[in-house]
Write a structure and sequence with these properties.
Blueprint: H1 11-22, H2 26-34, E1 43-48, H3 52-63, E2 67-72, H4 80-90, E3 93-95, H5 102-113, E4 119-122, H6 126-133, E5 143-146, H7 149-160, E6 168-170, H8 175-198, E7 206-210, H9 214-225, E8 229-233, H10 237-245, E9 249-250, H11 253-259, E10 262-265, H12 275-280, E11 285-289, H13 299-305, E12 308-313, E13 316-320, E14 326-330, H14 336-339, H15 346-366, E15 372-374, H16 377-390, H17 400-406
Helix pairs in contact: 1-3, 1-4, 2-3, 2-15, 3-4, 3-15, 8-9, 8-15, 15-16
The site of adenine has 9 residues, from helix 3.
Length: 413
């Protein structure tokens, strides 16, 4: 058995963390219990944030009969104790450690690719795109699933260029994923990461949220709930209008740059906060990113132009700018919620990973041609129904008359 982790002796802490998360992941628990070795004999390559929630997911895959290989989907998001637990107790091959170099990150990805997986689970698209660059490793792939907005965009581009080699289910696009994981998950875990890194008062601060997709909506709402005065920047006119009518200030980043105390990017795009904006900022401005990749803030050029760099405490770097002002960067500009905290809460990851599990079974059964697919509606609905059930919430049902009314066109005023 192969693995590459920080320290196997951390396994006991990883076990306790996994069990704690499991209490909030009851839908996945039900699916695990009712499963009858549906993935028996399949090799599943996963590139995911190695957290206690992912731990529960890969254990579910293993219990369903799969052989699982897991690498990190970000160099800073691995929980080393969880990695140790999966290796020691579950004999799952894990490749990742918190703070790994970019070289190690890609080596770990390669370890998983070399196993020639039958199914692939990705978060951000690195595993799937690298399998496309190395087709000798992808010959067994029946299909893949993708967890996040950024990954889905990359794979749709691959598909548009007619280069996609196998079917991919965009788990991100399920209602029971993005409405909860992206919005409430990113919202809460971004505040969590910010507070663990800085421990400063949010109330009264001017917080600039770049991007008003589902993640940005969640971040803006939660910082606002903590008493911040929130500004939103957007490029999409509909989303900008939504932000206005949700009660936020909306303006261009170059204007917001002069006013903000705290900046959080959630766009999925690059160079959202560039050097021009950073030079306009107030002395002491704090910068952080909650998007998937570390390209939203121009950290490379910030490193180049700064006069001095100084580590203040874990996950806070101070940059002295040529104009004499200082800015503070959290978690190297990598995704704040996982670099500085523990990622989304288990209860939302419960729904995301249940969609993942059911989508993998679907891919195995259907053998689809290469394309990017949405999660089938019956899966999305099943996850919502089970989540309500596990929360002890009952809802009404349509009567026969109501069903007829909704399917007719004759009855008007
Ligand atoms: N992405 C965001 N939060 C996560 C978590 N807790 N586990 C796995 N992936 C995540």
């Amino acid at each position: 058995m192969e693995y590459r982790i920080k320290d196997i002796n951390l396994a006991e802490i990883g076990r306790k963390k996994t069990e704690w998360a499991c209490r909030e992941m009851k839908v996945l628990g039900l699916l695990r219990k009712e499963d009858e070795k549906s993935l028996n004999g399949l090799k599943i390559g996963c590139c995911l944030h190695i957290t206690s929630e992912t731990s529960n997911f890969v254990i579910t895959l293993k219990k369903a009969g799969a052989k699982v290989f897991l690498c990190a989907s970000n160099p800073l998001s691995t929980q080393d104790d969880v990695a140790a637990y999966l290796v020691k107790e579950h004999k799952i091959e894990v490749f990742g450690k918190k703070g790994e170099s970019e070289k190690e990150y890609y080596e770990n990805l390669k370890y998983v690719m070399e196993k020639k997986p039958d199914l692939v689970v990705d978060d951000g698209g690195d595993l799937i795109t690298n399998l496309h660059k190395n087709p000798s490793f992808s010959e067994n792939v029946i299909g893949a699933t993708e967890e996040t907005t950024t990954g889905v965009i990359r794979l749709e581009n691959l598909s548009k260029q007619k280069l996609l080699q196998f079917p991919v289910i965009a788990v991100n696009n399920a209602h029971t994923k993005y409405l909860f994981d992206n919005r409430y998950g990113t919202g809460q875990s971004t505040v969590d990461g910010f507070l663990r890194a800085t421990n400063i008062l949010i109330s009264g601060k001017i917080v600039v949220v770049c991007g008003y997709g589902w993640c940005g909506k969640g971040v803006a709402k939660r910082f606002s709930g903590m008493g911040a005065r929130v500004i939103v920047t957007e490029v999409n006119p509909v989303r900008a209008l939504e932000a206005v009518m949700d009660g936020f200030w909306v303006m261009k980043i170059k204007e917001a740059a002069k006013i903000g105390d705290i900046f959080i990017t959630t766009t999925g795009n690059r160079d959202v906060i560039g050097i021009d904006e950073i030079l306009k900022m107030k002395d002491g401005a704090i910068l952080a990113n909650s998007g998937h990749f570390n390209v939203e803030i121009d950290v490379k050029n910030l490193e180049k132009i700064c006069k001095k760099k100084n580590k203040i405490r874990d996950f806070i770097e101070e940059y002295l700018l040529p104009n004499g002002k200082r800015v503070y960067l959290l978690g190297e500009g990598r995704l704040l919620n996982l670099a500085c905290a523990e990622g989304h809460p288990s209860s939302v990851m419960d729904m995301s990973f249940s969609n993942q599990f059911l989508s993998l079974k679907y891919l195995k059964d259907k053998r689809l041609p290469p394309d990017v697919y949405n999660v089938p509606e019956e899966i999305d609905r099943k996850v919502a129904e089970l989540k309500l059930k596990t929360l002890g919430i009952k809802i009404d049902k349509l009567s026969k008359v109501q069903k007829e009314y909704l399917s007719s066109w004759k009855i008007g005023t």
